[in-house]
Hints:
Carbamate kinase, 2 domains
Amino acid sequence: MACIVMKFGGSSVADLEKLRHVAGMIAAVKSRGFDVAVVVSAMGKTTDKLVSMAREISDNPPRREMDMLLSTGERITMALLSMALNAKGLAAVSLTGSQAGIITNDRHTDAQVIEVRPFRVQDELARGKVVIVGGFQGVSYKRDITTLGRGGSDTTAVALAAALDAERCEIYSDVDGVYSTDPALVDEARHLPELSYPVMQEMSTSGAKVLNAHAVQFAKQKQIAVYARSTFGTGRQTVIRRFSPGALLGVVAVVSQRRVALVRIEARDALATFKQAAAVLEKEQVPIKEVNAIEARQGRSGSKVSFVVAGSDVYGWEKIRSGLEERFGDAIAFEEGLAAVSLIGEGLMRNNTTLLRTLALLERNGIRIAGVATTSFRISILVAEERLEDTVKLCHRRWISG
Amino acid sequence: MACIVMKFGGSSVADLEKLRHVAGMIAAVKSRGFDVAVVVSAMGKTTDKLVSMAREISDNPPRREMDMLLSTGERITMALLSMALNAKGLAAVSLTGSQAGIITNDRHTDAQVIEVRPFRVQDELARGKVVIVGGFQGVSYKRDITTLGRGGSDTTAVALAAALDAERCEIYSDVDGVYSTDPALVDEARHLPELSYPVMQEMSTSGAKVLNAHAVQFAKQKQIAVYARSTFGTGRQTVIRRFSPGALLGVVAVVSQRRVALVRIEARDALATFKQAAAVLEKEQVPIKEVNAIEARQGRSGSKVSFVVAGSDVYGWEKIRSGLEERFGDAIAFEEGLAAVSLIGEGLMRNNTTLLRTLALLERNGIRIAGVATTSFRISILVAEERLEDTVKLCHRRWISG
């Protein structure tokens, strides 16, 4: 039987009344003859509350224990949603990440899904049950509970959809899809009804909150169509699927990320220095966003390493910075208080026009450019954080709504 | 190395400050050179809050989902306590019931511990870590999360102590041990410094709240000494261990249980009828406390079956009663609103003196006796619930404080 995976974010299950509404939506899909697997987040602000308790207990709680703590949030939701479905007369069963076969590495608080072994999910679906899986969590090969980091429930949903060979994956949240930029920043933000996998992936990596980049990667691998919808909305949606010939070329979105830091290290051996710095970051599980330049002029003094770290990805940035300062002393410099603004679209770098015109536009408006990085789907520009809003507005007007 | 198991109840870990106090107590024991395994309950009223959410969602939530929901409470405590210990520089690791090898049957919401396989606990202790285990929870052979029912964290603690061959098991709560009766009911209640396993077991079965009867059974099997202490108290305690020659004979305690129902069924074939009734109760996992009489005069009309059910043990009594009424119609009668008052002690029934004098005492005071049951450690008397307090006071004054 065709299977649909439905994922509900924290605001969609924030209280018991909303949980009942969600149970009704699930029942409607089930009654149309689909097998239904559901992935849920923690209710409303539950995760924030648990995090603040942990912070009150310890400045630096062990990551494994953070995962033990935070994974309880989704378990509360899934048990209550299962009860709500059973109360409607619909057989349902809740499964933990571990029970659902979400196998991860042991990178606690930011684990990667390595494999999904959905045998138990399949068994329960075959018995006609709605299966509710706790999002955001998995189990490591060491049999410890792990969590998948920010937006991890999306990853659970899409990875599960891929493993179940689902017809599609529906991601329900409090917004009705993906916009050309953050509507809270720019009034002219446009709703995007359709996006390709790589464009959505670049948007997520660069700061768009609607869908996790890792989730999009799973969808791409197995060509699962992902529908981003509002739980309480009118029916507008964004479909993320294989690139269609009619898709737009050029800039389709302007996304941004706050709390970005540019780290520069003066070094005799740039490559060795970079490795040392990366080791410090790796120990604390900090992803490096961009390595702007490794001027590996080996043996010559005066060479430089620089890279970009996004503070919002980082757990305990203060501690990491002191670790780096201790290691490199005067040779290291931090430029903090930056933001990254990224233009996203197919074929952006086929020629240099978009990049050059954007740089000229920002210069004309007195916006200092601290750095630039590009891929074939993205042009990212580092600016001072207080100029983020201006930069986003200028770029959006120039390339999308202008 | 000698191992001590410490168990902390909900009131001992009700907030973060208390958690820190408990962390200090653990550190003190650890510093004396013991291996320490800790068992924790959910913080304060967490379990009650989760239960009331479930009740709001459903009149009759599936037991499996109740277990999924309720087991999160202990997981929050154990993760936070592990963080508090790590913050003190003490290596600690939290383990779920499943990770700690607490294997149960699949009788959800009231599961029995079948086996403890504490390999991971032993490994972590051998690494010098304090191991913190979530109480009240286990895992069934079907790999589902189960909970152990009322007072289940005691069972976790003692079963773990037995499996680890611990030197002793310390149960910390908000009272400093076991009393001769409920101090809230009777001012003259006496603190009991020492009790044998069977006396404690009868007390727990008959309504004493300090320690779970199942836990005492585990302690008895492996001869683990159990210390009941107050977390914030002065050092008074009750030790439960093998019967010592100096232990008191006669009535040592008067305990009581509210919401008791006496069920009577008129039947032609009393034994077959009892089996049918027991099947209805078994389906809903209701334990039968006493089968008062099976007057199995087979083939003769007018024979009777009667048994006692304690409402406080029962999950959804209204539903069970209608099930029985549906099955037996006019032949069944319920006497509700009863209480059981039990005198506990070694050798109580060596002769009939204690029983006869107690019955005479109650009759003199106008207390109607709805039923009597005895074992060699216990005399239980059913009275109207509104006479419970009088009955307890009269018995306590006559046999203990008089």
